[in-house]
Specification:
The structure holds two protein chains of two kinds. By secondary structure, chain A is of the alpha+beta class. Chain A is built from three helices and five strands. Chain A has helices at about 35-50, 75-80, 95-100; strands at about 1-10, 15, 25, 55-65, 70. Chain B has four domains: about 5-110, Sulfite Reductase Hemoprotein, domain 2, CATH 3.90.480.20; about 135-290, Sulfite Reductase Hemoprotein, domain 1 (2-Layer Sandwich), CATH 3.30.413.10; about 305-400, Alpha-Beta Complex (Sulfite Reductase Hemoprotein, domain 2); about 415-555, Sulfite Reductase Hemoprotein, domain 1 (2-Layer Sandwich). Helices cover about 40% and strands about 15% of the residues of chain B. In chain B, α10 (about 305-315) crosses α11 (about 315-325) and α16 packs across α17 (about 530-540). The chains are: A alpha+beta, B alpha+beta.
Chain lengths: ~110, ~550
């Protein structure tokens, strides 16, 4: 299972693609691609967002669902989704509980 | 301190204007990311995990209070209230918006600073001994030469598209505090038998995935040949350095593959053609640059000796700080002070905007308006009257920067690692924090003595792990963080690449492993005067391997 992510051109903010066509600042509610066709569709959306000068470093990343929460497989992506693990007062984890929960949760892998 | 002349200021202002236009066009979608990336990198703008990152150059690590206040202002206004001082004596901001970059660079230009050549395949910020101009063991201040190199290398048309990045470091003392042998060019300023100034020239050092100790290719180069000789080295590199493989493109690979003798021969041949050209530095020009670095007027302050003695009796913590963080100055009434950015459990190298402001105020009041950034990610007051040490200490206590751990196990170098960096494979900061907390007890740290622990979150080695007495390299293995330990490295005049001790450790094991290594050292050292590095060089890896892995071998 994958989601589409990247960084916004104007401020570099990490963002994830949602079903409504927007790139949101949290991974919650990101559009899930469960098969090859859906992945191809997201990949095309990512390429267009890059070409349209909206999103940089566009990538499809592997995720899993835990109690309905989207959790990236790689630590790198969990840190992107939450913020620096040494500064929990910064990044998305500092904004709202659900965002924090979606991201890094203590180092266990 | 060096002050911009009209050419410097015009050049930096013009660059701000040019880059502002490039940012505007990028935000308007008129240029693509592929077109913009090299332009932003030339101006120190990276894209990391959470946001853009701006790396600001601090030439040879020297700052005035006014400049430090501007760094604080940028942290407060455009970032999240802090900055990260790096192993290249620079500062990085982790959260600025692209749209704010032109304003930030204009603010920097207003205090004679910029972010030019802090990235890209060019000659990067020239680094120097952080005690330059103050050290008791110095032959001469290396910074005038670093400044000459800065002027020569700034947008040098021939050297703006090198095979790979290029780093130069200069030291003016036998005791190498600038790690010159880990640089592409390392310059050791010295005097010959005739009392003339010149340089021992080292080439081809570096860390990264292929660590190499630089080779000395010339024992004495007259000072006026600095640019002619560096040009000769860069020309040989530019001509023969590999451009087909990024991982083999640094000059260290060229020197290694060519052979030191043959490489030196090529450089000398090139130099013969350059030594009497306009690259030969006129005596008057060297002395003019040197004048900018004239030491402050250090008035006699003989009362310092007694003041320090009394204050020591009054305060154990001051006394410990004095032992650890204060070093001899060439003027006996003065001292150089290390302000540790390694508070126990803190992220190495980070300072808040208010701390930066307070340091600027303190430098203005008690340290002749001069601050240094060390490659070990600390700040330095190079000139402080011994009589003022207690007052400075008290103020540092107030701002949480009086940790007495310089050169001890908690004075850890760490790169930003996976918490910020797009290149990283594993976290560095959290490892540093855990080790720092484990060894928080100062008496224990002092018993262990000098121990340089350095952590990198990937093989690019920004955290200098290869030359740590204990080095830790974070890698990703099967999706998890794994930390590989090297022992016996050093980044001084006896530069050595550390040796991998064995299998790596998980994030939950690495602190214990470090403690095992330290306990083994304490058990096998000859006496308290034998430092960790000395002990390792004497006994080798065997006792450490035994302590770390013996149980596994037996179990197997």
């Amino acid at each position: 299972m994958k989601v589409l992510t990247g960084n916004r051109l104007t401020d570099g903010e990490a963002v994830w693609y949602r079903a409504d066509g927007s790139f949101a600042e949290t991974i919650d509610g990101a559009q899930l691609a469960k098969d090859k066709a859906e992945q191809d569709r997201l990949e095309a959306i990512g390429k267009k967002a890059y070409a349209d000068n909206l999103i940089l470093d566009v990538e499809l990343i592997d995720v899993e669902l835990f109690d309905g929460r989207i959790v990236p497989q790689r630590l790198r992506e969990r840190i992107r989704a939450a913020g620096p693990t040494n500064r929990t007062d910064l990044g998305k984890q500092a904004r709202s509980a659900p965002a924090a929960a979606a991201g890094f949760d203590g180092g266990g892998i | 301190m060096y002050r911009y002349d009209e050419f410097d200021q015009d050049f930096v202002n013009a660059r701000v204007e040019q880059f502002s236009d490039q940012v505007d066009r990028r935000l308007a979608g008129e240029i693509t990311e592929d077109q913009f990336r090299p332009l932003r990198l030339m101006n120190g703008v990276y894209l990391q995990l959470h946001a853009y990152m701006l790396r600001v150059a601090i030439p040879y690590g020297t700052l005035s209070s006014k400049q430090m206040r501007m760094l604080a202002h940028i942290a407060r206004t455009y970032d999240k209230g802090y900055g990260h001082f790096t192993t290249r004596q620079n500062i990085q901001y982790n959260w600025p918006a692209l749209s704010d970059m032109p304003t930030i660079l204009a603010d920097l230009a207003s205090v004679e600073m910029h972010a030019i050549q802090t990235s890209g395949n060019c000659i990067r910020n020239v680094t120097a001994d952080h005690f330059a101009g103050a050290a008791a063991d110095e032959v001469a201040d290396p910074r005038p030469y670093a400044e000459i190199l800065r002027q020569w290398s700034s947008v040098h048309p021939e050297f703006s598209y090198l095979p790979r990045k290029f780093k130069i470091a200069v030291t003016g003392a036998e005791r190498d505090r600038a790690a010159i042998q880990t640089h592409d060019i390392g310059l050791h300023l010295k005097k010959n038998a005739g009392g003339e100034l010149g340089f021992a020239v080292y080439v081809g050092g570096g860390q990264g995935r292929t660590p190499m100790v630089a080779k000395k290719i010339r024992d004495f180069l007259p000072e006026n040949q600095l640019l002619a000789y560096c040009t000769a080295i860069l020309r040989v590199y530019n001509l023969y350095g590999r451009r087909d493989n990024k991982y083999k493109a640094r000059i260290k690979i060229l020197v290694h593959e060519t052979g030191t003798e043959e490489f030196a021969r090529q450089v000398e041949a090139e130099w013969q053609a350059l030594k009497d050209t306009e690259l030969k530095l006129p005596e008057a020009d060297i002395r003019a640059i040197e004048a900018y670095f004239a030491p402050p007027a250090l008035t006699p302050r003989p009362e310092g000796e007694d003041a320090v003695r009394v204050a020591r009796l009054d305060s154990k913590s001051f006394s410990e700080w004095l032992d650890q963080n204060v070093v001899t100055h060439r003027n006996p009434d003065y001292a150089a002070v290390t302000i540790s950015l390694k508070g126990i459990g803190e992220a190495p190298g980070d300072a808040s905007d208010s701390q930066m402001d307070a340091i600027a105020d303190l430098a203005e009041k008690c340290a002749f308006d001069e601050i240094r950034v060390s490659h070990e990610q600390n700040l330095i007051f190079p000139h402080v009257a011994r009589a003022d040490l207690k007052a400075i200490y008290d103020e540092l206590v107030q701002i949480g920067l009086a940790t007495a751990n310089s050169n001890l196990i908690t004075d850890i170098i760490a790169c930003p690692g996976l918490d910020y960096c797009a290149l990283a494979n594993a976290r560095s900061i959290s490892v540093a924090q855990n080790i720092s907390n484990r060894f928080a007890d100062l008496a224990r740290q002092r018993d262990i003595g000098e121990l340089k622990l350095k952590i990198s979150g990937c093989i690019n080695a920004c955290g200098h792990h290869h030359v740590g007495h204990i080095g830790i390299l974070g890698v990703e293995k099967k999706g998890a963080e794994l930390y590989q330990v090297t022992l016996g490295g050093s980044g001084d005049e006896t530069t050595t690449i550390g040796e991998i001790i064995g299998r790596g450790f998980g994030p939950d094991e690495i602190t214990d492993a470090i403690e095992t290594i330290v306990d083994t050292y304490l058990a096998v050292r000859a006496d308290r005067s034998e430092r960790f590095l000395d002990t390792y060089r004497r006994v080798g890896p065997a006792p450490f391997k035994e302590a770390l892995y013996a149980g596994e071998t037996k179990a197997a």
